[in-house]
Amino acid sequence: MSLARATSLSALRARLSAYEPALRAERAFRFGDTRVDGCFLAGGLPLGCWHELTGEGIEADLATATAGFAAKLAARLGEAGQAVWILRRDDLYAPGVAELGLRPERLIMVRTVSEAETLAAVEDALRTRGVSVVMAEAEAVDLTAGRRLQLACERGGATALILRRRLYGKPSRARERAEPAVAASRWRIGPAPSEPVNSMPGLGAPRWTVELERARGGRGGKWIMEANWEAQNGAVPFRVVTELADHAFPAQLPERDFRRAAG
Known about the structure:
Blueprint: H1 3-19, E1 28-29, H2 34-37, E2 45-46, E3 50-54, H3 59-62, H4 64-77, E4 82-87, H5 94-99, E5 107-111, H6 115-126, E6 131-138, H7 143-156, E7 159-164, E8 185-192, E9 207-215, E10 221-227, E11 238-243, H8 255-262
Parallel strand pairs: 3-7, 3-8, 4-5, 4-6, 6-7
Antiparallel strand pairs: 1-2, 8-9, 9-10, 10-11
Helix pairs in contact: 6-7
């Protein structure tokens, strides 16, 4: 990239940041790793916005890995106030959430009966004084609902994590969107094998495959992250184990396959 083009891009990002106060650096959560923080315009996950987390395969029904990642992140974001978790199914494992750092005295659980009620409860929680982070399980957030969530985030200053989850045994009503979403970022979370501590038998710290599919004003990335058990006194909750490349296509194709792919 030429110096002139890099300068122009930097100036454009500065102008965009001025029109979007929620993306400014002083309202960002930093993962403590430049490989992740560098993907965001604000130098970290923007606060005062809502973010979308989704899974693949059975995770679209269970959302186990997604919930674990959200709980670990919310434990850090919820230190400044209360955390609210809104769900339609009563299957959140409280001891597991507590082990990930989300303290019971900081957590308020809300049960809803419909998608519309869930989104309405999210808006109410975001506008409530003393709430710093809201998590909610929803099948999809359309453009209108997304704008309402963002306005609620900006008004109350809280951050929302929307976990996409469909009801058991029912086809999803949500379509993979081709148009830009309203969410400040979109993540795809999956499970990853843990590494035993000091080569001893047993389980190590929880790990996730974490793909940042979209970051408003930034770029995407993919990593394996591990829960940082040493995250005390403001330390970062995750540790990047490795950065993953995109292996959707082989590095080299035989000549005949290349011609077929190009043809």
